[in-house]
Design brief:
Layout (H helix, E strand, L loop, with lengths): L24 H16 L4 E3 L9 E5 L9 E20 L9 E14 L5 E6 L1 H14 L10 H23 L11
Antiparallel strand pairs: 1-2, 2-3, 3-4, 4-5
The protein binds nickel (II) ion.
The site of nickel (II) ion (NI) has 6 residues, from helix 2.
Length: about 180
């Protein structure tokens, strides 16, 4: 089931997500809904908090831009190590239409549980490394706008309030909202 993606500055996006205690049927259903939502929105990554569930779950699928990649599920992800610096023009499903160059680690090692509750560790580079850092930020209530100047953030905030108003108006008129791409 496709869930509604919260748009910045929804206060729920500022919450620090809580760890998953057990990968049970409820968590599996959440992951399935997140996958449906990621593909419906044509994103490359999604954190549970973006669909209003404040739990430490994120998914990535960077295969459209990174050869050999696939859908990946990270539950209670932890950054084990990181090195190098890189810049990338990032988008976000919670910031439709916005993109800004953000500097992050070029390579990361992340430890997590998979969708079956099995622990694994992955060395990531390229877009996957960026997406993982972006989505892990979401789990701590941080969006890429929080890494910009307050002036830029203020302008984006204004545009997003307009997007939220337009979405509400479209819902009232029962027209589907435009699909948007992002992380
Ligand atoms: Ni995002």
């Amino acid at each position: 089931m496709v869930r509604e993606v919260l748009i910045y500055p929804d206060p729920a996006l500022k919450q620090k997500s809580k760890p998953v205690a057990k990968v049970d049927d409820q968590v599996k259903k959440l992951v399935k809904d997140m996958v449906d939502t990621l593909y419906a929105e044509e994103g490359v990554g999604l954190a549970a908090v973006q669909v209003g569930v404040s739990r430490r779950v994120l998914i990535t699928d960077t295969s459209s831009k990174q050869e050999g990649e696939r859908l990946r599920v990270f539950i209670n992800p932890e950054l084990v190590s990181a090195e190098g610096r890189t810049k990338y023009q990032e988008g976000c499903l919670s910031l439709p239409g916005e993109a800004e160059e953000i500097e992050r680690f070029a390579r990361v090692t992340v430890r997590a549980l998979d969708e079956k509750g099995q622990p694994f560790e992955i060395d990531a580079d390229g877009l996957l490394a960026i997406a993982l850092q972006h989505e892990m930020d979401h789990l701590d209530g941080v969006l890429f706008v929080d890494r910009l100047s307050s002036v830029k953030r203020g302008l984006i905030r204004k545009r997003m309030l307009k997007v939220i108003e337009e979405k509400k108006a479209a819902l009232r008129a029962r027209k589907p909202a435009e699909p948007r791409a992002g992380l």
